[in-house]
Amino acid sequence: MKKTDFIIKPNDEDLLRTMEITGSIKSVERMKKNKKFRVDYEAAKKELVESAAPVLCWNRFPIKEIVGNQVVLKNGAKIGRGPVAKVVAGAQELILGVCTIGMKTERKSEEYMKGAAMMKGFILDALASWAVDSVRAQFYEWIKKEFFKKEGLRTSSMLWPGNSWPIEEQAEIFKILGNETGEIGVSLTASMMMAPKKSLSFLLGAGKNPLGSEDSLQCEFCPDRPGCKAYKIRMNRHL
User: Fold this and answer.
1) 88 closest CA partner among 221, 210, 222
2) Other CB atoms closer than 10 Å to residue 227's CB: what's the count?
3) What's domain 2-232's architecture?
4) Distance separating alpha carbons of residues 98 and 203, to the nearest angstrom
5) Burial of 53 (0-12, 13-18, 19+ CB in 10 A)
6) What's the pLDDT tens digit per position in 139-157?
7) Over 50: is that where the pLDDT of 95 sits?
8) 41, 62, 73, 192 — which has fewest CB within 10 A?
9) Half-sphere exposure of 183 (CA within 13 A, CB side)
10) 54 near 135, Cβ under 8 Å?
11) Domain segments of the chain: what residues?
12) Is 173 in contact with 79 (CB distance < 8 Å)?
């Protein structure tokens, strides 16, 4: 299934959060004080809105059982490790998806960085990272409301590969979704990197009974969170 009705509307707070998490706060402070940087920011914000092409593919798969730390689907596929089994415990089905904002923004950012507009390219890249995460978050809010309203289903916390959940599981998401990822123009390399780079894969569980984890941040399942700057920032901002 394919979904395209996403709104890309960046703002200063979103950019600040993204740059804090990526460790670029000094650049944000410079941008606030320097008129030229501020102009670059406004220009990058406009270009993001014009160039981003948000799209997401997703599907739902009945769960047969959970064995150890893996979820076994009725079609025979297995996916899991990390916190997956704990998070989706009690679910009747698994929802898998991949989202992207396309290649155009990425190419513009790289072009600026290689030329004389490095700061503009840097800002556009940060905004693009925020944008694809915004697509993921918008889908999560939509599906929670849709499932509960139409089918009375609860939804688990959403997870995506990396940190708490091994990046290698990204290959299983692509394998299970099959041709659907290609239909939105996203591919996976041997090193588990997606193309376009501004893409995300994810999963969540759904069921009629209480699930293992509902509405928690992925950060809460990561063993590195005590010393992680990103975790502290998200907790302080309740994000």
Assistant:
1) 210
2) 7
3) 3-Layer(aba) Sandwich (3.40)
4) 9
5) middle
6) 999 999 999 999 999 999 9
7) yes
8) 62
9) 12
10) yes
11) 2-232
12) yes
